[in-house]
Please model this.
Amino acid sequence: MVLASIFESGVSIDFYIVLASVLFAIGAVGVMVRRNAIVLLMCIELMLNAVNLLMVAFSTYHGKGDGQVFVFFVMVVAAAEATVGLSILVMAYRNIRSTDVGIFNKLKG
Amino acid sequence: MTLEMLAILLGGLTIGSALMVVLSKHPVRSVLYLVVTFFLISANYILMNAQFLAIVNIIVYAGAIMVLFLFVLMLLNLNKDSEPITSIGIKLAGIIAGGVLLTVLLAALKDGLVITQQAVDSANNNGLVENLGELLFTKYVLPFEMSSVLFIAAMVGAVMLAKREKQIIE
Model:
């Protein structure tokens, strides 16, 4: 099967390391730059996916399936996190009518 | 078209759509670009012969989580006018910090890789359902069952949080 031999056909593991690092950095910049809380959660999902991509790449590269099982668990945690995070946001929006993280400073002493 | 060109094309498209998630001002457009990013990441999984994860990625991320995001965005009726504006100083600081993070990540990962060079099994069937299912229900059966407890906790928590508080009638 031709697709099974991606790492033998000139694509090195370095390519996926660079790709995943760039995706992770884009997600991190998004968390730092954007102020809408929903977009912030989306950037966290992007960072999780960058890590997933790198884990699948290493799993294929080393010929072991364990990395892909870990990706499965990361997806489980991401789904739970998105659900709870979004319901907290809906609750906060009902109280202060905004999703701007700059306004969420009521806990500041 | 060789496999290498295909991988580079997919990688470039993935980075481009991920950039558009951060850059677009409209939150709904951000969600749609994130869906595109997830589909492109799934294409990368297929290229690495991780077929099970490619399908699960589309079903769970593009199908379930992104619909949830879109649903909340529509529920809160957010649009371009209600989008908070970041000051130019914070933007600059964020971009510099992200660039430094990227540099450090690349430097650290590139140096660590030299030691772990090893041959690749050409008949790589690890990503198929049969092998992953066997791993999941033998070696990782306890974490698998624990994840269902996590889901119950998340579900109860979400219902509790999103429930409207009872109106107090005098």
Notes: Chain A touches chain B through 80 residues (CB under 8 Å). Chain A has a mean pLDDT of 86. The helical segments of chain A are 13-33, 37-62, 66-96. The CA atoms of residues 96 and 103 of chain A lie 8 Å apart.
